[in-house]
Amino acid sequence: MYIVHSVVTIPEEKADEVIGLYQNRSKLVDEADGFISFKLLQNRRKSGELTVQMEWETEQDYLKWVTSDDFKRIHDLEKKYPDKELANTKAMVHQYKVVAW
């Protein structure tokens, strides 16, 4: 199994807006080969810190997704979001190979 965390820090007053966007996400990734699950996590102590957690069968499945046309389409839409501060938010991406459970 392969897990990817994409961590963003946004102004706390915009957290609910961003959470709403993810609650209504396109779900295109859900159809990708090897996709297992998607979760949006909110830091208990820093409400402006959000983490997208995705689980994949393999690293290759994840890499296939991030080079797909659907991935590019979704992320191009994010760049066009009307709130320029949110549109320009950069995520810190952490990738993990599950080695025990």
TrEMBL record:
Residues 2-92 form the ABM domain. InterPro entries: ABM_dom (IPR007138), Dimeric_a/b-barrel (IPR011008), Heme-degrading_MO (IPR050404). One of its GO terms (molecular function) is monooxygenase activity. The keyword Oxidoreductase applies. The keyword Oxidoreductase applies. Coiled coil: none annotated. Pfam families: ABM. Keywords: Monooxygenase, Oxidoreductase. This is Antibiotic biosynthesis monooxygenase. It comes from Alteribacter lacisalsi.
